[in-house]
Description:
- There is one protein chain.
- The chain is an alpha/beta fold.
- The protein folds into 3 domains: 6-55, 434 Repressor (Amino-terminal Domain) (Orthogonal Bundle); 67-172 and 301-329, Response regulator (Rossmann fold, 3-Layer(aba) Sandwich), CATH 3.40.50.2300; 173-299, Response regulator (Rossmann fold, 3-Layer(aba) Sandwich), CATH 3.40.50.2300.
- Helix content is 43%, strand content 15%.
- The protein has helices at residues 12-19, 23-31, 38-51, 57-64, 80-96, 114-127, 149-152, 173-186, 202-218, 232-241, 255-267, 301-318; strands at 69-75, 99-105, 132-136, 155-158, 168-171, 192-195, 223-225, 249-252, 277-281, 295-298, 325-327, 330-332.
- The mean pLDDT is 88.
Amino acid sequence: MPPTGPHGRPRMVDVGRLAHVSAQTVSRYFSGHGYVSADARVRIEEAVATLGYRPNPAARQLRTNRSDAIGIIAMGPSNFGIWTILNGMTAQARREGYTLVIGQLEIVEPSPSSPREIRASLEQLLAAGVDGLVFATPYQGGEHLIGDAGERTPLVVVSERPGSPDNSARADSYHAGLLAMRHLIGLGHRRILHVGGDPTTAESAERERSYRDALAEAGLTALEVEGRDWTPEWGYEIGARVDADSFTAVFAANDLIASGFMSALRERGRVAPDDYSIVGIDDMPEMRFFAPPLTSVSLDFAEVGRVAIGMLVERIRTGRSLAQRVVEPRLRVRASTGAPSA
């Protein structure tokens, strides 16, 4: 019997007829709710393959009041961290049976127009009927820009410094910085330079705070360069003009800054770890193949994304508020660090 749907498209009833089961059984097969025998499952799968049947998501949404879609608003510049978080979110959403609708807003820092841009993106996602939202921001308190969205739909915030710790997930830049600094101090370094990142972000502030706390803990004096951005160009600029005799070790706010700094020092005849030691943060995959391979602190951004989606799905299914979840960093020691030269 040919398909009976519009334009010859197969319907659920067509699958049932070919599989010799009721349309209700086919519905239970796709929804996962209710009993379907193993034999019926096999016949349904064969009928689906033969007919090329695809469930109608709009009809399912009307029936269940769910879209099985999650909206993502990612605020801030595109970089390794946010894209790795999004990759983790995508993988976890697939495992949970959800589709992601992603709005990437490259807002370099909050401005008077930011609330309008975010509100427009937010309304588009809510109009699409998403079951919940994740809002990712590198800026302290950035989640306040989404207003009452958390009251209208389940929400999880990804931020180093969320305004409220509940229903949020984050990496731990402060702990990452402590790991980097304690590693250098443990090697015997006493003159440690810190090259900061983007000063408008919570991540940079947390890494600077850990630098100062670790120095105070060891009774050492700060040698700090105020941050500008997260680029290798910034690291190169500092490496080209810094007094190379003023430090024996460097804590760079991220791996890209470290790579630029190392390149500039190499041009000046200074090579790690013979002339100085250097540590970054992020543990970007390519840094293992730098010359020398960079010691770095791994922030598992993909896991942050997976955790955020897992939390949101739990909120969607249970309606409960959840405590903040933190993904802890790990130090990866490589050839760019060693004891200070005599």
